[in-house]
Specification:
Blueprint lengths: L1 E3 L14 H6 L8 H28 L4 E5 L6 H4 L14 H19 L5 E6 L16 H12 L10 E3 L3 E2 L3
Parallel strand pairs: 1-2, 2-3, 3-4
Antiparallel strand pairs: 4-5
Helix pairs in contact: 2-4
Bound molecules: NADP nicotinamide-adenine-dinucleotide phosphate (NAP).
The site of NADP nicotinamide-adenine-dinucleotide phosphate has 17 residues, from α2.
Length: 172
């Protein structure tokens, strides 16, 4: 079982800076390439590097599963909706890194489907962790629930999905 959970939301929001202010400073027009590369290095290339490193072990396992911990913030469908109140924070750094992770999830699922290895992405919701300076509203146990569920899918379970514990399927 591989759970790609590691991620960073930024290289360090300055004390007192809100998520909205950070989003304003990381629009496509003004984002620092160093900031974007650093976050994608962990959230996208890091997940792919661990996938490649772990694949020989996963292939040797009887019922291997891969879970990529993504975020609803990366949903292109949700962020295309003008009525989505959170779309102002969709930008090239963290949100788009999760969009890219979703694309990798699908590519991994397609690659491993013939071998029966399931690859699914999950969203934990807004969880109280260091990632958001403990501003989240969900507990870590609640946030982990969907990752645990798809990690334990049986042989007839789906692959290439993007889901949340209570909301079900999240649009890509
Ligand atoms: N919290 C939320 O509201 C929320 C919402 C949606 C999605 N998510 C996703 O949930 C996952 C877990 O995040 P979290 O909220 O638990 O955040 P967190 O408390 O900040 O934990 C992130 C973890 O990733 C590790 N990590 C970061 N960069 C790494 C690297 N380059 N190499 C190895 N490990 C690295 C950190 O290790 P160290 O402690 O050693 O630095 C830490 O254990 C992430 O994928 C995040 O995007 C979280």
């Amino acid at each position: 079982m591989l759970i790609n959970n590691a991620a960073i939301s930024s290289t360090g929001i300055k004390p007192g800076m809100s998520v909205e202010e950070y989003a304003q400073q990381t629009r496509p027009s003004n984002v620092s390439f160093d900031e974007m590369r650093a976050v994608w290095e962990t959230n996208v290339f890091g997940a792919l590097a661990v996938y490649q490193a772990m694949l020989p072990l996963l292939r040797a396992a009887p019922a291997a599963r891969i879970v990529n911990v993504s975020s609803g913030a990366g949903s292109l469908t949700r962020n295309s909706d003008p009525t989505n109140p959170h779309r102002a924070i969709f930008g090239p750094v963290y949100p788009a890194s999760k969009t890219a992770l979703n694309a990798l999830t699908l590519a991994m699922a397609i690659e491993l489907e013939p071998e029966g290895i399931k690859v699914n992405a999950v969203s934990p919701s807004f969880t109280k962790t260091n990632l958001n300076n403990y501003a989240g509203t969900e507990t870590v146990e609640e946030g982990a629930r969907e990752a645990v569920r798809v990690a334990l899918l049986g042989p007839d379970g789906p692959t290439g999905t993007f889901t949340h514990a209570t909301m079900g399927v999240i649009p890509w």
